[in-house]
Structures are given as C-alpha cells and as structure tokens.
Amino acid sequence: MIDLQPDHLTEVQRILRDLVPGVEVRAFGSRVTGSAARFSDLDLVLMGDGALNWRLIESLKDAFSESDLPFTVDVLDWHTIPDSFRDIISRQYEVLQAPAGV
Q1: What's the N-to-C CA distance of the chain in angstroms?
Q2: Amino acid 84: pLDDT
Q3: DSSP assignment of 8-32, as one string?
Q4: Residue 18 CB neighbours (<10 A)
Q5: What is the pLDDT of residue 100?
Q6: What pLDDT is recorded for position 77?
Q7: What class has domain 6-97?
Q8: What pLDDT does 66 receive?
C-alpha cells in the first residue's frame, strides 16, 4: 500500500484525473517500498501507449508543484526512461490510476 495520507492521495488522484485521464500511472520508490520519510518525494511514471507530449508532462509537474501537497512529485514517462530504470520500477510499484477501459 502506498504511504500517503488519504487527503494527499485524493489530491494526487484528482490532479492525475484532470490532466492525464485514461493514462495508467504507477507510483514507485520509497512511498511504495515502505521506506519513505514524512516529506519524501512521490515518484510517478506515466504508462501511455507511446511517449507523451512533453508539454503535458510539464503541465502535470506544474500542477503538483502548485498544489498544497507537502512533498515534491517526480513525474517520468515510461517510454523515455532507460530499460534499466524500467526494470527497477517493475519490481515494485502501485497503480494510482488505471488505464482507460479498465
């Protein structure tokens, strides 16, 4: 289970739903492995059908930055990261937003 307070999780999911509806979003890193500190960042990877528009990713980063969340949110595009990093993410993640149609 992801290490986020319920109101923070709700805010993260709202931002995702507003800006990247239908795109699968996975959380990974310390907030999933159970090693997070109170203000640890939240690591997210977007699992689109192909590489996503960089403007969309920047808009998402801006929305998280402008939110009231007390931690930073790092956003990555699955299709632009190295295979070695994909392997690390694939070992332990949690789906925060399911893809469209699921």
Answers
A1: 20
A2: 96
A3: HHHHHHHHHHHHSTT--EEEESHHH
A4: 11
A5: 82
A6: 97
A7: alpha beta
A8: 98
